[in-house]
């Protein structure tokens, strides 16, 4: 590989949410953190160089994305995702969750139902509740190895609850599914039939493993594009979450106008200048880096898979098709949700995301962040194995 992802970069005492906020988050000090979705891997050198050049300039005034920025967006999605998109339909926001909350306010009223597919990224639930809307759940079907969509229940929940907004997670966090084109087409057919607008959170789109292909929801057809907002950001792909920039693609001109009006109401105008520079550099120069990173993460997944098979058969890796957040089944340990949380923290000395926070169907699971140097992952697995042996 051209890039070295094995280098361990110390993150303690860097104001890191992941490493420096255990006490603030109700956790004991000294845990190995593998929870929140940021990587222990440096962003590409071209991005660091762009940021250094901006810092050297020394003036950080109001900025707007330029033609080079939009060209970088257009080329990235065309070459990486076979999506021919007009980059000028994008709106820049401080993040995908920020955009999610804004779209909820734009497209629904207080008390309206918003549909999600649990177990799913917990900020979906939080965003819906915080804005006074009602959560409707289309629970994913789980056969013990893989998750699938219950399409009959999906349509029934829409009809019974008068749903007009659906939040799609694609690729799905935390269950790791990369939805097939035909699955997305079934969802889109149902949504269009019942006039349901789709917010497609596609922030993990660049982490897809062999034999899987990410399909941008808006690429299904012109009609689908008019009925959705595609939420993207370089933050997960290039480890840029702290720079607060996302690109929200809204083909429907009227909804894009309403979205911008809501941004005005919140007092948001120009995006973070450093975020814009980082995004432009990442999408222009970061393709090879991403390819090598995905290969490296595939190796981390292989290590986790083999370790569970040979040393901890009580635990089961739900084979990830995408994301760097493997979903692991702990149910054979026969622990309640509180007992499992204590086991992970007190015995394994790990900080993971407990599956129950993703919805009722997540009880008995834990989500790992394996976007770390391999030595860090080995340490986590060793600690976990020692803890499993204590109760087996």
Based on the model shown, name its key terms:
alpha/beta; 2 domains; 15 strands; globular; 392 residues; Aspartate Aminotransferase, domain 2; 14 helices
Describe, in plain words, how this protein is organized in 3D.
- The protein has two domains: 17-44 and 288-391, Aspartate Aminotransferase, domain 1 (Alpha-Beta Complex), CATH 3.90.1150.10; 59-285, 3-Layer(aba) Sandwich (Aspartate Aminotransferase, domain 2).
- Helix 2 (45-57) packs antiparallel against helix 11.
- It is of the alpha/beta class.
- It is globular.
- It has helices spanning 17-20, 45-57, 67-81, 96-107, 122-130, 151-161, 181-193, 222-226, 235-238, 253-265, 273-285, 287-311, 337-347, 374-391, and strands at 32-33, 90-93, 113-116, 134-137, 141-142, 147-148, 165-169, 197-201, 228-232, 246-250, 316-318, 327-329, 350-351, 353-354, 365-367.
- The protein has 14 helices and 15 strands.
Strand order of the largest sheet: 2-10-9-8-7-3-4
Number of structural domains: 2
Please name the fourth-level CATH homologous superfamily of the largest domain: Type I PLP-dependent aspartate aminotransferase-like (Major domain)
Multimeric state of these chains?
Answer: single chain
Low-pLDDT stretches: none
Quickly give the structural class. Answer: alpha/beta
- Mind telling me which CATH architecture of the largest domain this is? 3-Layer(aba) Sandwich
CATH class of the largest domain: Alpha Beta
């Amino acid at each position: 590989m051209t890039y070295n992802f094995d280098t361990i970069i110390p993150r303690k005492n860097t104001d890191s949410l992941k490493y420096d906020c255990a006490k603030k988050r109700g956790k004991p000090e000294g845990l190995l953190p593998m929870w929140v979705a940021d990587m222990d891997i440096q962003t590409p050198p071209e991005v660091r160089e762009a940021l250094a050049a901006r810092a050297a300039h020394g003036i950080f005034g109001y900025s707007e994305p330029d033609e080079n920025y939009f060209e970088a967006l257009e080329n990235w999605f065309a070459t990486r995702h076979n999506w021919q998109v007009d980059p000028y339909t994008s709106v820049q926001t401080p993040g995908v969750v920020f955009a999610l909350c804004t779209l909820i306010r734009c497209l629904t009223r207080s008390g309206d139902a918003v549909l999600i597919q649990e177990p799913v990224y917990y900020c979906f639930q939080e965003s819906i509740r915080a804005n006074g809307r009602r959560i409707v759940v289309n629970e994913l079907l789980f056969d013990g190895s893989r998750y699938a969509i219950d399409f009959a229940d999906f349509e029934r929940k829409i009809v019974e609850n008068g749903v007009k907004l659906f939040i799609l997670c694609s690729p799905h966090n935390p269950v790791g599914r990369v939805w097939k084109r035909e699955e997305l087409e079934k969802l889109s057919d149902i949504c269009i039939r019942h006039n349901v607008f789709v917010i497609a959170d596609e922030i993990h789109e660049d982490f897809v493993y062999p034999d899987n292909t990410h399909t941008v929801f808006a690429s299904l057809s012109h009609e689908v594009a008019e009925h959705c907002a595609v939420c993207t950001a370089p933050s997960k792909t290039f480890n840029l979450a702290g720079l607060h920039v996302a690109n929200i693609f809204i083909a429907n001109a009227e909804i894009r106008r309403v979205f911008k009006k809501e941004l005005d109401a919140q007092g948001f105008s120009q995006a973070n200048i450093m975020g814009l520079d980082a995004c432009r550099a990442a999408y222009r120069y970061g393709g090879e880096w991403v390819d090598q990173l995905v290969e490296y993460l595939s190796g981390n997944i292989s290590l986790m898979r083999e370790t569970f098979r040979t040393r901890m058969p009580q635990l089961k890796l739900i084979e990830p098709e995408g994301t760097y957040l493997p979903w692991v089944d702990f149910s054979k340990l026969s622990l309640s949700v509180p007992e499992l949380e204590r086991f992970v923290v007190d015995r394994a000395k790990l900080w993971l995301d407990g599956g129950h926070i993703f919805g009722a169907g997540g009880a008995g699971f834990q989500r790992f962040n394996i976007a770390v140097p391999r030595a860090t992952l080995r340490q986590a697995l060793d600690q976990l194995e020692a803890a499993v042996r204590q109760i087996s």
